C-alpha cells in the first residue's frame, strides 16, 4: 500500500514521507475548516438555508480537494472562497437584487468556461497577461472587504449617528466576544499554533455562551445526519442581461486571482516548481479547481477555489497530493458534525474574517508607490472594493485608472489587449449597472 502511494504521488521523489503528508493534510484541514462555520452565515444573507449550505460547503470542499489530490497531485485544498461568497451574498443577491439561484447559475457557467479555458491552455495565458499591480491590489481590496463584513457581523461597525460609519463599544455582547476572539487568534497565530483560526473560533464560541449568543437546543448532539444539499437549483432567465454578464465576469476575474495567486504562493513556499521555475502540474491543478467549481454549484456552493491556508500544511512538510487526500477525507467526515458547526455564532467567526484582511495586506509588497502609475490604481482598487461593498466596482475603477494613467504617462506599450478588453467591460459596468 505504502509503495503504491509513494509511486502514484511521488512522495519520496519530492523528499517527503507518508506520515509527513498525513500531518500536513490534517494541519491544512484545521487551518481552513472555519469555512464550514462562516459560509452558512454569509449565504443566509442571500436567503439560503444554513443547514443545506453547510452540507454543500463540506461536500464540495471534500470532493474538490480529492480531485486536486488525484489529478493535480499537489498539496492544495479547495473550498468556497471568502470574498467571492460575500460578493454574491451582499452585492449580487443584495444590492443587485438577484435570487441566489441566478448567482449559482453564474458560478456554474464560470466553472464550465474555466474547464474549457484550462483544456485549451488559454486560462494560463490570460492570467499571465493581467497586470501584476491589479492582481496585488485586488487581493488587498478583497481582504479589507472581508474584514468589513466581519466587523459588521460582530456588530462593531455601524452606520448613522452623525457620521457615515461608526464603531460600537466593544464592552459587551457580540462586539466584546469578537474582540476577545480576535485577540486569541492573533496570539495563537503569532505563536504559530496549527489551526489557530479554528481554535480561536472554538474559544470565541465558548466565550459567547454566557452572553446568550449560543442557544443550545434540547437533545443537542454533535453528530447527526447532514441536511440535504441543494441540487441543480439554477435560474437561467437572466443570463443574457447586462447585470448577469457583469456578475459572471466579476466572478471569473476574481477566481482567476484566487487560484493562480494561491498556486504560485504555495508552490514557491514548498518548492513545487520544475527546472524552469514553473508550477508542477499547473494545468492539472487549474483543471481540478474548475471541476470543483462546477461540482460545488450543482450542490449549492459558491465558487470553489484554492485556499492559501494550504501553505500551513506545506510548511509542516507536505509536498504531494496525498496531503490533499487527507484534507478531502476530513471535510467529508465533517458532514456528520453539522450541529456543531451550525451552533457557532457570527460573533465567533467574525475574528477570522477580520484577520484575513490583515494577512492579505502582504499582497502589495514589492510595489514602488513612488510611481503614480502604480500608486493610483492600487489605491483606487483597494479603497473602492470595501467602500462600495462590491469587488466588481473596485475592479472596474482599478482597471480604468490603470489604463488611464498608463495612457497619460506615455506607457501605452504596457497596456495589453487583455487589459484594454477588461477595461471596456468594466467601463460598461460603471455606465449601465448601478450596483
Number of strands: 4
3D shape: globular
| Helical amount | 55-70%
Which series of helices and strands comes N to C?
HHHHEHHHHEEHHHHEHHHHHHH
End-to-end gap: 55 Å
Strand order, main sheet: write it out.
Answer: 1-4
Percent in strands: under 5%
Number of domains in the coordinates? 1
Determine Rg (CA atoms, Å): 21 Å
Mean pLDDT equals 84
Largest sheet: 2 strands, antiparallel
Taking pLDDT < 50 over at least 5 consecutive residues as the criterion, the unreliable ranges are: none
Structural class: mainly alpha
Count of helix runs:
19
Q: What would you note in describing this structure?
A:
This protein is globular. The strands form 2 sheets. It has a two-stranded antiparallel ribbon. It has a two-stranded antiparallel sheet with strand order 2-3. Helix 2 packs across helix 14, helix 9 packs antiparallel against helix 10 and helix 18 crosses helix 19. With 435 residues, the chain is mainly alpha-helical. Helices cover 66% and strands 3% of the residues. Strand 2 and strand 3 form a beta hairpin. It has one domain. The protein is built from 19 helices and 4 strands.
